[in-house]
Amino acid sequence: MEENKVEYNQVQYIVVKIGNEQYGIDISYVDNIVRMQKIIRVPKAQHYFKGVINLRGVIVPVMSIRLKMQLEDDKFTNSSRIIILKMDQALIGIIVDEVKEVVTLENTDIEKMAYDSKEDRTSYINGIGKHAGELISLLDINSVITEKELV
Amino acid sequence: MDVSQYLEIFIDETKEHLQSLNEQLLILEKEPENDNTINEIFRAAHYLKGMAGTMGYKRMQRLTHDMENVFSEIRNAKMKVSAGLVDVLFQCLDALEGYLETIQETAGEGTNDNEPIITQLNAILNAGTGAQTLKAEEVKQDNAPSQVQDNSKFKPLYRDLTLEPQEKHVISEAFEKGLNVFAFTVYIQETCILKAARAFLVFKGIEDVGETIKSMPSVQDIEDERFDFHFSMYIISKESYKTVLSVIQNVSEIEAVVGEEFTYESIQNLNKKQSETSEQTQEAYETSEKESNVSAENMKTPQSSQKAQTNNNAKAGAQKPVVNRTVRVDIEKLDVLMNLVSELIIAKNGLVSVSSSETGENTQGFHEQIEYLERVTTNLHESVMKTRMVPIESVVNRFPRMIRDLNKKLNKKMELYMTGEDTELDRTVIDEIGDPLMHLLRNSADHGLEPTEARIQRGKPEVGSIFLDAYQEGNNVIIEVRDDGNGIDVNAVRNKAIERGTITADQAESMSDKDIIDLLFLPSFSTAKTVSDVSGRGVGLDVVKSKIEALGGDVEVKSKLGEGSVWTIRLPLTLAIIQALMVELGDEKYAIALGSIQTIEDISVHDIKYVEAKEVIHIRETVIPLIRLDKVLGIVKDEEQPENLTVVIVKKGEKLAGLVVDNLMGQQEIVIKSLGKYINIDKVISGATILGDGEIALILDVNTLV
Description:
The structure holds two protein chains of two kinds. Chain A has three helices and eleven strands.
């Protein structure tokens, strides 16, 4: 995947829906997408961690992007999914309302975000993609996952 | 040909021999006349020398060679064992261990010659044997001429080599550049077992000083050991003939080297007049006569070229330690594993046949197979865990030596008694437990035991005793370090703590002696060496504690002033699998390690008493604080408080606590899994496990709760 990115200047994104917005997740981080399942609460963890799930014998922590972005709590529906991301050999799950499609974005389709944006939560995004007349906010996976709590 | 494939074996065996040398030397110190021990040491030293030589570790070889010399004299009753000698020999062992460590990290032995130790050894040897050395020298001189005579059978076989045109071209080019051209025939001792290794070392040595342009047999054949006990080669080098010769002679088990230096003319003549060699032969013989002198020199001055070689090795291995962490597994354990795996296959086949013949009503066969499968997997699990178990001996066997050294250093007489060295622990635990144990032993030796005079005054035996006992207790292994020294002066600790502001005087009043002693484990206490009244007790004890707690264990101390102290380390048998009690809180499931559970009680709400506004229960004459797990873990419950509470009484060392749970689910063997690094978990949760139905239960760490 990494190679593709360099060679063709294009990246594949999984488009998901959280609330009214569409978000894109770089497909090279995605290990798996699973249906909603029972999440075991972990006491005293960060508030945006819903808990852990059992992914074929591996225990994977699951975080709520909504809570992390200070949106209202998730309402699990039939189309809710957990996207399992792989970072430095460790797995982590994030909850999304709906998985829509996979799109390929050229470099030219992506508008880089300016970081001086006033709103805090925009710093989870490192660009905006344009695809078929719609806007896709591209998630900066690193900043979503890492600990840094925004004030 | 590469010796690195033998490196692991070499390291393992060297360790074993060093350990046995250590043990035997300790015996020898007490019984200087013990022939068996002397023979044993001689053998071990000899073996070490041989192995070091084979691997090309010159410095190690030289040191062990000198050790062997000393013991050979002792064995022949020409010398007596003295205390000084034993001290020097212990230094030798330390030096050898130093080499081994360097080898383990870099594959090279480093550049430390340990010259002082060798000088001391030789001094002892000379002093002890006195007259004999003269004789020995005579013998050597006798040998020398015969060696030269022997040389006549070492022919300069390189003359039989025919050089190809392009090789001649290379040679003439070399002359143009002002390089020297040599030819050698190397004879390896016929007793040599790894002649290819020797040849490899010769070539490797030459690589550092020059270039081999032709060899007979070919390098490939030599690597595959397809040669007799000699080989010949042409070398281009900018070094002098002497240097190159000494490089070759530096390799052990070389019987002789015949060689000569060529001039441009001589090389031209060589091929033309291969029959007329008598003159040159003469010359060659002369060089080989010189050789004995050269080799004598070599013994004294380490060769720069060799240094270069070891340096190269060091560079090559610098990236990572060359030896992997390994566990030596008893073959019987492996056999058991093998059997279990075959049973597993049988069980699988059983299931397959049941499922294919299944008509719907015969579920009994199916259940039987499942039960069989369950039994096999449980056994398999157990056996795999057993292969990870290592006897604690591998850690504790270095302690007698340490105590002996402390004996001398502290000028106190003491003796270490060990039991239960065969107690087994998980490999990961074994690796970590060495330092804490050493610390506790040093502590006992240094601060626990009184000076000899004080002991005599108090009517104690002059020699202090330190005990190290290991044994298994349920799912734990207990290691006790005991001494019959002075014990801990609780008042001195208390005063010190108040003085340092660790506790207030009021607090000190209400603290039990045990609580006071526990202060020793506080980091603030240990870093201060100024606790003079208790002679610095507590230094580094916090490290001991944190290390042991990191392993899932705990450490306790009991002490009686004037009679000694007992340090008790409690460690889990293994880190990966535990027996646990499953409990329910609300609709969540938690596991509590069975090892820490004392009893389970049914308590009426009315039996709860209050002490300092905290809930306690009073059963069987003990007051036990209650911990409401649902509150600690933030579990939301809306139901009314029930009349009766189920309380799991857990124990951490001497402390008890009652954990209030909603429901008991039963006992289960669980596999501990980590929760991943992104989620921040409180210390209360030590991990998670997956239950039979795929659900996750979190594991409660009782040690942090209590």
